[in-house]
Design a protein that fits this description.
alpha+beta, 5 helices, 26% helix, globular
Length: 136
């Protein structure tokens, strides 16, 4: 299993909206590195849901329900989406400030490549975030 982080601006698409919809396709990615990460996602992979711009925190856990396919919102067939479904809201959100201050997480892709909307998470990072969220 692999682990990932996706970012969404809560005023556009929040965790609560995602949950109320029962999941959704993750569309609109127009960065090649993020697209490559979408293409690497496999069914069942765990995905952190991060509120960007407002909140700046990991708020929930989702999983990949369907692997990549062409993005129906794009004219270019090189862009893809995956389908994600919610798993659970984290007991405690994990803030970017916490991530940057934590020795285990300070090199996380969200810190090193802060503008990347879809990024990998190592198993060690995943476990640490879950510990900080009181989920382990």
């Amino acid at each position: 299993m692999n682990y990932w982080l996706v970012k969404s601006e809560p005023f556009k698409f929040s965790w609560d909206t995602f949950v109320n919809k029962g999941g959704d396709m993750w569309d609109g990615v127009r960065n090649y590195a993020a697209r490559n990460n979408l293409m690497a996602m496999k069914t069942g992979d765990q995905v952190f849901f991060y509120h960007s711009n407002e909140g700046l925190e990991i708020v929930g856990l989702a999983k990949v329900a369907k692997e990549h396919y062409p993005d129906p919102t794009a004219d270019d067939p090189r862009w893809v989406v995956v389908d994600l479904v919610p798993v659970k809201k984290l007991k405690k959100a994990v803030s970017l400030t916490q991530i940057k201050a934590d020795p285990v997480l300070k090199e996380m892709a969200i810190v090193r490549q802060s503008r990347l909307s879809v990024s990998p998470v190592t198993p060690t990072e995943f476990d640490r975030v879950m510990d900080l969220a009181d989920e382990n």
